[in-house]
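Quick entry between incubations.
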Amino acid sequence: MLTTPIEEDVVGTSLWKDAWRRLRKNRLAIIGMVIVTIVIVASIVGPPIIRLLTGYTYDSIPNDSALIKSFPPFTAPDGTFSWAHPMGTDIAGRDILARVLLGGRISLMVGIISTLVSLVIGITFGATAGYLGGKVDEVMMRIVDVLYAIPYMMVVIVLLAFFGGQSPLGQLFLLFAALGAVSWLTMARIVRGQVISLKNQEFILAARATGVSTWKIIARHLVPNTLGPVIVYATLTIPSVMLLEAFLSFLGLGVQAPLASWGSLAADGIQNIAIFPWQLLCPGVTMAITLFSLNFVGDGLRDALDPQMRKS
Amino acid sequence: MKIAARVGLLVASALTALSCNSTTSAKSALYFGKIEPPQGQVMRYISGSEPESLDPQVSTGQPEARIYLALYEGLTEYHPVTGQVIPAIAERWDVNANNTEFTFYLRQTARWSNGDPITARDFVYSLRRGLSPALAARSAYLAYSIKGAQAYNEGKGRAEDIGIQAVDDYTLKITLTTPVPYLTGLVAHQFFRLVPRKAIEKHGDAWTRPENIVTCGAFKVQSWRAYDRLIVVRDPMYWDAGVVKLDQITFYPVEDTTTQMILYKAGEVDAVYNHTVPYAWVDEMRRLKDYMDKPENAIEYYMLNTKKAPTNDLRVRRAFNMAIDKDALAVYRRVVKPLTAFTPEGIFPGYPQPRGDPFDPEKARALLAEAGYRDANGKYDPKKFPVSDMEISFNTNEPNKQTAEFVQAQWKKHLQLTVPLKNVEWKTFLDSRAKLEYKGAARAGWVGDYMDPYTFLDLFSTEFGDNGTGWSPPEYVAMLREANTEHDPAKRYERLARAEVFLLAAQPIIPLYTSGSDWLKKPFVKGMYANPLTLHAWKYVYIEHDRSKWDIDDPPLSTN
Amino acid sequence: MLRFIVRRLIVTVPMVLVVVSLTWALIRLAPGNFYTGEKPIPPAIQKNLREKYGLDKPWYVQYGKMVSNTLHGDFGLSLKYQGQPVNTILRNALPVSATVGLLAYLLALVVGIVSGTLAALRQNSKLDYSSMAVAMLGISVPNFVLGPMLVLLFSLTWYVLPPALWGGAKHLILPVLTLSGVYMAYIARLTRSGMLEVLRSNYIRTARAKGLSERHVLMHHALRGGLLPVVSFSGPALAFLVTGTVVVERIFALPGLGNYFINANFNRDEPLIIGIVAFISIVILLFNLLVDIAYGFIDPRVRY
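Done. Structure below.
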């Protein structure tokens, strides 16, 4: 690497400062950011507050068996209006709001961390394969193909058999590993595709001609130019890993009951949609609003980081 | 944004329409969803998972059993209402004094679907085939009490030495090594149903394909497409064909609960198999006449690992059992009956079922204190208990999860212990249970193979492998074996009950509940009963097209 | 180009072998086996079962048999669905999955590309925002929720479409809609961002400067480059759709490959898993090859 610290500093500042300046101007992105922040804060401080106010935690089943049933939002057992359960209760009489907020912790963590993992692996792998081309590209992409075809479920079952029975923290790590393992594959293909089409463009050729090192070309010139589709795909990855988590909890990975995630709450709720629609709608709408907002943030970021737009 | 808002509005309005719809219909109507009887005598039924095979001897599950009741018969059959033994191909039978020799007299009118007569030799062939090591039937152990059966199945004996004999064309003698008083009920099990020799010898593995299959039940196969549907039609060759009313039954293998309920509500199927109604729906459904509810010949319990601390201590096992309010659990689960013993409640008439320890949280805490989990004053101290060595593990499934959450809450409340839950994929779960690798408690359930308490008590007399708890003392096994030598049914039940008391005292398990049948049928489906096996004798089922008779309960049934 | 295709086709064989070998090893490592049940089976019967299916032989013999089966394209008998050849199962289930999958993807492509392109052309307009919001809705609503919702509307409220089961064309509508929802959204968003990227690039500027009509620029120049991300996405997506998707097949009780596959995993049905995996890997390799070929056609800058 030929970079000097000074050069790095200058480039870094202008890129991110510029981006931030443009992002601030994007009203939707700012609204999105505010909503996401609210959801994050609520899922962190919400459960203890509910516990303080109503005594309910995500897993408390009422002692009185008359209360072990699903009440609609804002409804007291006698049918009158009540603030006790703004999202109603589930079939075990548990407070849905407390469960949704707790589920938010898990789902947001899963969504964001796994997506970051897939971004890092996917970009590195895809950009390298695409830029180097030839035999290296061939081998790298065939590895991706093999990984696509391996039955994912079997991998998770075996993973659990060998590393299961862990502490909750170990289990979480396993979950990220399992989620990261699949979500980077398509990312890598997309990045590679972009890089292949970019690498013969003038500015890359120019960089190469002036003797810039391979890694620097990839990191400085190719990757920033692929960011558009990558950010968009990343915002698409967040919901898909959140839902994949719900499937994994079916295999025994993911969250263990009575903990919940948005995906698992929605999966439980759909069963009772015809009788207790709030069991699906409450977690579902919370999740949809969050994903919407995240998406606007993603779009804003995309526009802000767009190297083509930088001069405008 | 407008489009999104409009779509949202549409969905919301549809949902409100729906939920209003369901509540109003629950109040006014007696039935669930669309009610439109099919044309003619045609029935559509959801039978559960895709059948493993149409060969009754190799498949072991309930989804197949539901279908076999239409396609195959054995010596005896289950009564459509009580589940008790009734004659089938055998008209009557004799038993010797110590329950070791059974003589069956077959009806001479029984025929295969291809018109060939059914004789005693067909039964001899079927049992020999079922026990042959080459077939490797998983249920073969059910026949091990028949003389020579185990040796042949283990590759040590000859087929000719098996204690099954065709005395003449219509007389069959079965000789046992140990007394089996419930044998007549046992031989109704799918493993003992007749299979067609000629077709098997001609087609080998492919004999169960629709074009090759030969059956002996009230219905025969018309077409079969895996994961889609199996269509059976009335078999004119069947000996009791005059009773059969349905012309056709379509069995749908549908696994998803929501889909099952939707298909039923939309009137695409006329009945569903048991345990299909999500328990959240039960309060709503119970008001409707569709709902079929009866205790089943099945129990749900937790196994305890008696080889690993802390559950290797009897006091700990008893404490955890006594700290669960089974009545509250039954209220919570809606469709079940509370259970403190190891045999299902109210299923075996005349069986003096013992009661296990009652719900008593105070005693539970005292027992734990006694077991050493106490503070300086000798009072129970939850902080001393190694709660990280306990778990409730269960295979992934919604009802299992709900039960586990409830039990966890009970222990938290009464013992101040938060035992972690662990859901595990089915085969991984079974593996860890069989190898006793699980910590604390593991979920278990058993559906009786026959209508006798022995099918439950026998789970812990395992000579083969482990029963999942590590508990199987020789005294217990001896008590069971001796009970079976008793010829007088009442006295035998008494001795079995004594064995059950012994089992409950050792508490290798925590009984949870007796399952409820929990299924649905449309009002025009008649002759289909909530029975303890939830296996339906299809020959008595029919479609009532006269609407005035829909609300009237089924008339009493006469079987021959 | 031709040499490239031939090379890729030849490499398919060892690739499939790598995939099935890894899968085979995974099945062996997974706890439990095909006969593990609620009640343990006596050892003698376990021995009978192992002998019947050749599991008593040394592992290399079993492995060799699996490899030779795969090379011959005959995967033997299913362990769970006793007496049924895996090949028959594949033959029966594949058309179902392929029909639903292809139709769903076609629908997703048409709707996705059109709305994505329109959104990109009118960036930051109401049309852009609303179509992207709908797309996001499609992604945020998982198909296990979307499916039952559609069923509630069309089958239980309006009674116009069958709720599930396999039958005529009417039975296809809801599964196809459910399945295409997510993909539609993906494609719309990928198209939009790809198009935005391209519409600002030099060659489009050049084309516009030459005075070509906006329509011509769009159809002949912009779409080509703008669709690259969609094309990359399509290879694996299509391969998965065609080989069956578990959720939709379960919700609508379709006799497709996805249903078989998930159960085969749970049942540890080795021949069936191997058969399906071998098939899926061939499909993935072929579709990715097609994608790479398509790259060459779509984007003249790509060279092999």
